[in-house]
Amino acid sequence: MALYATEKDGYDLTGLSFDGPYDEAIVNGGIHIVAQQCDDGGWGWPHNVCSSSAYNITAPIIDGVLAAYDASNLSVFMSSAVAAADFNLNSTYGGSGAGAGSPKLGSQTALNLWYMTQRTGDTTYTDWVKNGFYEALLAGTYGGNADMNAQDYIDAVRTSPPWQNLKPWELANQVLAAERYCYQGIAGQFEQGILDALANLDNTDPGTQYTDILGVVGGVQGLANVNRLTFPEIVAPNQLGVNGSTTLEELADYLVSLQNPNGSFNWHSNLAAPTASDEDLQTTAYAVMALIKAQERLPAKNYLPAIESAKVWIAALQENDGGFPSYPGGSYYNVEVEAEAVHALGKEGVYDRIFKGQMECYVN
Fold this sequence. Notes:
- The protein has 3 domains: 1-88, no CATH class; 92-148, no CATH class; 163-364, no CATH class.
- Strand 1 (354-355) and strand 2 (358-359) form a beta hairpin.
- The chain has helices at 4-8, 23-35, 58-72, 75-88, 109-120, 124-139, 150-159, 167-180, 184-199, 212-225, 248-257, 281-297, 304-317, 335-346; strands at residues 354-355, 358-359.
- Strands 1-2 form a two-stranded antiparallel sheet.
- Helix content is 50%, strand content 1%.
- It is built from 14 helices and 2 strands.
- With 364 residues, the chain is mainly α.
- The model is unreliable at 1-8 (pLDDT under 50).
- The longest helix has 17 residues, at 281-297.
- This is Squalene cyclase C-terminal domain-containing protein.
- It comes from Marinicella pacifica.
C-alpha cells in the first residue's frame, strides 16, 4: 500500500525497510493513531475529539502504538506510548465516596503498565498498579467506596453493564497481569472469574445479547495466558458452542469454527443471515491474539492458517490514511479498535515461561 499516512503527516521514512509482511501496514496504522492523540496523552473515542480523553481505551491503544515502534524503531511511537502511560496514571475514582481520588484501572491497564516498566525501566508504572490496585484488593479497600476485595471486584465486573458476553474478554488480561505482578492468589480468582463468565455467555438472541464471539475469544486468550489447559466442565446453557467444554483445545477449536471463509469473525455467532457488515474488526483482531496464544500452549494443533487468514483480512481493510473502519464498508472509526487491529498485525508468539505451575512472576 502507498505510504499515504506517512507522507500526509510529514514523517521521513527514508531508509526505513519493512521486514515483516505487515510492517508497512503497522507503521502506517501507528502514525494514523498517533495523529489522533490528544495533548493530555490520551485519546477520544472518535477521531480528533479531545474534549474528554477516555482512560479505559488508553492501554489497548498503547499496545498498537508499541507494535508500530517494534516494526520501525521510530522514537515518535515510544514517545507517544510514554505520554499515554503517564496519562493513565491520572485515572482516579470520582465522587464523594471513601475511595474518591484513588487509582481506577481499566481492564487492560495493569498488564500494559507492566510492559511499559519493562520497556522503559521506569517503575513508576508498576508501583502505581501494585499500590493502587493489587494491595488495595488485598486490603479490601479498592474502588470508589474503598470497599472492594478481589472477589468483589470480579463480581462487579461480571455484573456491570452493558453486556454480559464481554466479561471473559474483560478479565482475559487481568489474570496474566496478576501473575506478572506476583499476586498469584488474585490471579487464581481472575482465572475462576473467566470460567464463570464463560458459563454465562448467551448467544440466543443477537438483538439483546451482543458480541458473544468476543466473549469466547476472551476465554481462549485468558486461559491460554496462564496455560490453563483443562478445567471443570463449563455449563453454558445459553451458548451451546461453549457448553460442555473441559479443555482449552475445545474452546480454541470452537473459536476457529466461527471464522468466516475470508478470514474475518462476525460480531455474533447466531446471526440468521450474516452479511459483510457483520464482519467485525475488533473481534477479528482479538481472535488473532487469542489463537496465537492458544497455538503456543497447544503445539500439536495448527491454528496458523486461521491466524494468517485473519491477519490478511485485517490488512486488506486498512485505508490509505492508515486507519481502519470498524467493519467492511463502514463509515465509523474508533481509535481503540484501529489500535487493536495494528496490535494484532504485529502480534507474534513468544512462549511465556512456566514456573512451578504458575506463570513466572517478576519480583523486581
